[in-house]
Write a structure and sequence with these properties.
By secondary structure, the chain is mainly α. The chain folds into two domains: about 1-40, no CATH class; about 45-133, no CATH class. It contains four helices and no strands. Helix 2 (about 55-65) crosses helix 4. The longest helix is centred in the N-terminal third of the chain and has 30 residues, at about 5-30.
């Protein structure tokens, strides 16, 4: 293992042990107070670099397939995270591309969520371009 990865692994191990210690302490207090708790792990914040080689390549794929221009792309932040944040954390990089076939109005992750077939076809074309060219 490289020195940086070993250092990161040790740091992560210390963080996990600290969380376990805090949880055990909290459980003792709650047991004494007769309070039931449920612990839920939350995702770390995900950060993506749109200026990375991979971000630029995906932008190029979307421009080619969808006919977008540079002015069609907007940078923004979102609340919440994904399990890709864990991958990002382990790899120690922001060079991860996240895309999907959703558009506003599709009730994404809600009741009656749906995707347009044309969006799915476009996504497949974008991924083929991204992975093959």
């Amino acid at each position: 293992m490289k020195k940086a990865k070993l250092k990161r692994a040790n740091s992560e191990k210390k963080w996990v042990m600290a969380q376990i210690g805090r949880q055990a302490y909290a459980e003792k207090i709650f047991k004494a107070l007769d309070i039931e708790i449920k612990v839920q792990h939350s995702y770390p914040a995900a950060r993506y670099n749109p200026d990375s080689l991979y971000g630029k390549k995906m932008k190029e794929a979307k421009k080619l397939v969808q006919g977008y221009s540079d002015s069609d792309f907007t940078r923004y932040g979102i609340a919440g995270s994904t399990d890709m944040a864990f991958v990002q954390e382990v790899l120690n990089t922001e060079d991860i591309v996240m895309v999907g076939a959703g558009r506003s109005g599709n009730n994404i992750h809600g009741v009656d969520e749906y995707a347009h077939i044309s969006d799915l076809k476009a996504l497949v074309k974008e991924l083929i371009y991204y992975l093959c060219y």
